[in-house]
Amino acid sequence: MRKLFLFMVMAFFGTAILQAQVKFGAKAGVNFASITGEDTDDLDGITSFHIGAMVEIPVSEKFSVQPELLYSAQGATTSEDGMDLDFKVNYINVPIMAKYFVAEGLSLEAGPQLGFLIDAEIEGGDVSIDIKDQVNSFDFGVNFGLGYKLDSGLNFGARYNLGLSDGNDDPEFFESEEAFKNGVFQFSIGYFF
């Protein structure tokens, strides 16, 4: 019974110490998104946004893990027969970043990202076409970036998401068998509470 009590006390204090070191935060920023692939030469990038929450979990003095939950607006634009067409794909992204601090507050970051499609549409003029069923509902990618964190909790980040999954889930609709993938430059500002 004593061993169980001692174990419970140690677990409680260990959890309290760990929670004191874990930092929760929020972030938002701008996306410079594009769609890449064999048949995407006529697509241009779009400027959009991302917003969400993050948790920084220190592993050592120089290394942390930072899982995030982000809403991210992505896509591309093109012109066809004089009409501008916007391909809008919106995701809930879950990046899991490994952060290595190379200097006080400055970190190199890399890690995988899981993306879950929320909606997808083509907009042009007054017309909007839902293409959610034609776009792959899951997006996997890898992130690379830099971060800078001030003692106040304010932080800044620059990141590139290299999409690895094929977004083309309906080659007949897109009139192409070729894969297309997401690519997103993100610039963020955040705050750890």
TrEMBL record:
Keywords: Signal. Residues 20-166 form the Outer membrane protein beta-barrel domain. InterPro entries: Beta-barrel_OMP_2. It comes from the Bacteria. It holds the Pfam family OMP_b-brl_2. Residues 1-20 form the signal peptide. This is PorT family protein. The lineage of its organism: Bacteria, Pseudomonadati, Bacteroidota, Flavobacteriia, Flavobacteriales.
